[in-house]
Amino acid sequence: MSYQVLARKWRPRTFHELVGQEHVQRALVNALDQGRLHHAYLFTGTRGVGKTTLARILAKCLNCTAGGQGDEGVTSTPCGQCPSCVAIDEGRFVDLIEVDAASRTKVEDTRELLDNVQYAPTQGRYKVYLIDEVHMLSTSSFNALLKTLEEPPPHVKFLLATTDPQKLPATVLSRCLQFTLKHMPPERIVEHLAKVLGAEGVPFEESALWLLGRAAEGSMRDAMSLTDQAIAFGQGRVEHGDVAAMLGTLDQRQVLSLVEALAEVDAARVLAEVAALAERGPDFGGVLDELTGVLHRLAIAQMVPDALDNGHGDRDALLALAGRLTAEDVQLYYQIGIQGRSDMEHAPDLRTALEMTLLRMLAFRPQGVPAPAKTPLPLRGAGEGGAGPAGPGAGTVAPPAAPSAPAQASVRPEVERQAPAVEPPAAARSPEPPPPAAPVSPAAAEAPPLPQEPPPPWEEAAPAPSVHAPKGAPAPEPFQEAGPAAESSAEPPPEPAQAEPSPETPSEPGMAGLFGHADWLACFESLGLGGLTRNLAANCVVEHDDGQVLRLRLDPALSAMRAEIHIERTRQALAEHGVVRRLVVEEGPLPERVETPRQQAERLAAERHAEAVAALRRDPNVQKLEQAFGARLIESTVKPAETGAGS
After folding, report:
1. Residue 391 in contact with residue 380, Cβ under 8 Å?
2. Where is mean pLDDT largest: 477-491, 503-517, 622-636?
3. Is 103 exposed, middle or buried, given 0-12, 13-18 or 19+ CB atoms closer than 10 A?
4. What's the pLDDT score for residue 337?
5. What are the Pro residues biased-composition ranges (predicted)?
6. 643 — pLDDT class (breaks 50, 70, 90)
């Protein structure tokens, strides 16, 4: 006996053997059991989802002779053994007329078909007309079919099947009971393939079935045909490597490795993964498409984990990977991937475009790419100058708790050169008597050699803003934080008096603790925060600091931004500036007359804009234009120049 392909051998012969399409199965079974039969059924859906199979099962239900239910003898459970069922299964039942509309489109063919409608069935209970790809009929054929389709003889049933119902006239659609068959999900296909291969005694790897299930694109017939091909390719086995080679598809595990490299922010590994992919000669545009597809599923895994599909059999791996990436990074990577796909046609070659897109993801992420070991830098205030980049936005500053010897040597001479010019005696620096343990700075200024444990860098470089600050820039207060090298954490730090407190950095915000709100405003821009983390921190005020726990208060209206990952980023940024605390962000009403960093930035921007408008109005050239031509200054278009303070 010749070999029978799996798609035909495992074709369902009853409704209960049908895989998927439960909504159609339920409606037809209930209609058959209750005797509520329509004269015309239309089955729509893509290839291989079961349209013709459903029609043949329905034909058997209508003509089974082994104890049907009701007066008409129809049943929803055909026996499969009576002469009618056997003849239908073998394709030789006289009263089942199957017509391929794609090859019989002429109106003459349709009229010839309809000439026999009036005659009673020869063998069965009903004469069933199964017209496949009915949308291929011509307009004249549809017109010839309409009258019979609307009022057929009682012994005739029409079963129509099509993959393109939009091409059917509305007059035909209105005369049929339409059922739309769905795509088969990969999970259902893999489950059925495992059952079939188990019954056939064919060894298989589950990951290989996931490749077949996705390649089938929702068609169970295509999945069975591909499985036949995989068995032949693998010499009686269905293995992952063989199926991937046969299909020529990208290995999903390599795409996950690429996403893991992005999660680790490891640019070297990203390039290594691309090089490994290049050895297989893939379509790099397809690689980027697969990558963005994984990012889409990661976003779902982060927002609604229960909605994550298992289309590749990698649901658990994606859920684990979703915890290693922030929601902002996933959204940013997805957007860059979509944009990079459209830019590929302009790139020198596709591999270069893929590599640049991946590197752009890392470069544009809010935290940037971690640089190699950096030399610790002294903390600078909002208006500080001196050697190197100054002011907010100067970059991430390494924690000053444990500076290396070279860093001490490079920073110390600058501080000592500034000391005679900017560090007056302690008595002159403050109108109040200094605390008993305060004479640390004079001792440090008198002793040329480097101390073994220098005071925190901000205490040494604190006077710098009064000398190097750009003209017009606000002079923030120096940090009063008691670091690890402080003399005593129990004594309050001395209050600076060399500069009057500016409106944007109030010296007495009403908050208790070693790290005050004025320090928070002064160092906020230099923290280097970005994205949602910056939005959260910019709307907080310092509530209390006891040297161990720093408490920030957040406006309750912005509670949706409060997330542990943003709090942890803020804590790390403060720790890099020497403020090593456990950070707690609590919701509550903000104190009056105390600005958040955002409010401070908005006020300063408004003040700079007002100053710029006033300066333009005083400009003689502007005044001449107004007088000579009736010109008018549009204040909303005025953009003040950025100050050296970085505000």
Report:
1. yes
2. 622-636
3. exposed
4. 94
5. 448-458
6. low
